[in-house]
Automatic annotation (TrEMBL):
This is DUF5518 domain-containing protein. Keywords: Membrane, Transmembrane, Transmembrane helix. InterPro entries: DUF5518 (IPR040493). The chain crosses the membrane at residues 56-86, 98-119, 131-156.
Length: 161
């Protein structure tokens, strides 16, 4: 057992020594630090820190933008940054990278689709079906790429610290 204390409100929590501190946050949303003091007054409810919304939303915007401009390379660059900025946990990096890749990729692909529809050069009758299939394949690849690059980004951060 180890004790972690909130940096903001100083509430204390009991964690298993195998737990990764980066996976948790205080119920007030504050970051936790380990403490040597083993006197715990009471066990407070602890929750898993799953989604870093600020990083994710920013990541989606950057992914959509770079994905639209550079395609898959843009998605790779953006989701590497997302994984790097989340924390040192590669699973978290992968989750955030995948979400950014999937949602950002969806936006990027649809900007392209809208432009294709507006442009008068596309008179193909099978165009609609191709568009849907292409979109689905595109966002699947982007989401998958995002998961891998997000994990790599978190891994790079872990190695550098
Ligand atoms: Zn707190």
């Amino acid at each position: 057992m180890v004790i972690a204390k909130c940096r903001e409100c100083e509430k204390e929590y009991q964690l298993n020594s195998s737990d990764n501190l980066g996976d948790f946050q205080c119920e007030c949303g504050g970051e936790l630090d380990y403490v040597d003091d083993f006197e715990v007054k009471n066990e407070n409810s602890i929750k898993m820190k799953r989604i870093h919304w600020n990083t994710l939303i920013l990541g989606i915007i950057v992914t959509a933008f770079l994905g639209f401009l550079l395609g898959l390379i843009g998605i790779i660059i953006a989701t590497l940054c997302v994984g790097y900025s989340v924390d040192k946990n590669y699973k978290n990096g992968a989750v955030h990278g995948a979400l950014a890749g999937f949602i950002g990729g969806f936006i990027a692909v649809n900007i392209g689709n809208v432009i294709n529809i507006i442009l008068p050069s596309n008179t193909n009758t099978e165009f609609g079906l191709l568009l849907i299939t292409g979109t689905l394949i595109g966002i699947t690849i982007y989401g998958f790429t995002g998961a891998i690059c997000g994990a790599i980004g978190a891994f790079i951060k872990q190695k550098r610290s």
